[in-house]
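[audit] Reproducing an earlier prediction to check determinism. Same input, same settings, fresh worker. If the tokens differ from the archived copy the diff job will pick it up downstream; this log only records the rerun itself.
[audit] input (299 residues):
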Amino acid sequence: MDVVSDAISAVRTGRPSSNRLRVGGSWCTRLAPYEGAGFHVVLAGGCWLVPETGGEPVTLGAGDVVLLPHGAGHVLADSPGDTARAVPFEEMRRPDGGGDGREVELLCGKYRLDRSRTHPLMAELPEVVHLPNRVGRHPELRSAVDLLANELDERRPGACLALPSLLDLLLIYMVRAWMSEAETGSWPSVLNDPVTTAALRALHSDPAAPWTNDRLAAAAGVSRATLARRFTALVGRAPMAYLTWWRLTLAATRLRDTDAPLATVAREAGYGSPYALSHAFSREFGVTPGKYRVGAGSS
């Protein structure tokens, strides 16, 4: 696994949900804060997104994609003016347009996320990631949008399976697109540094291996001192500290998503015994693996 795939997989739970919205005329709807991540794809027309966190209104055009990775509350409307008129999204009437030539069609949806183990790459995404439809930019994202538009008719054979899969693909492409354009945040720089990227790829490919600083430096092709300096400066943790955190994150994911015995979870996470895992896990999460599993199953 690569870092981006692992960062997304660690927090993703369940399957994404989506609703098609077709409106026209004067309209305004509010989407409440959500524990996951929200997204919108403008299939036709244009509208405004007004963040409730104090950010500037964002104008959205046909083909634009927007991700709200932290589930911030926001308003969608025909204009950025009086948002007090907004009705809850769940109560929004969805006519086929207002007959004034300003019809808008959107795909609105949510990803379910478990924020208890958010990877720092995902944590530093801004409140609103706006990816305008520009010729020649992010062709894979544009292709995913086109495919989504074609799969919205649930009468098409296989559409009920194709749509959630395309939405998962859309999340990857949105994160990739942000990373390629980001002017802030450390992780785009982390993954553009060949030494740090080589070390992270090694750790994520085989987290249970008996890694040491010397062995990881050899895998990255640099001295131990060089690896420690560059990795710590960019990632914010020393290599072995990052490895410990990532192993425990993987263990938490396995406890949440499977019924695997604790001994199996410990072995896969690089711990020699269930006791060793329990000790480290309790120190990191403040709860034993058993209690964590029970709590994750009931949430």
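[audit] rerun output stored. Observation attached for the diff report: The chain is about 45% helix and 15% strand.
[audit] end
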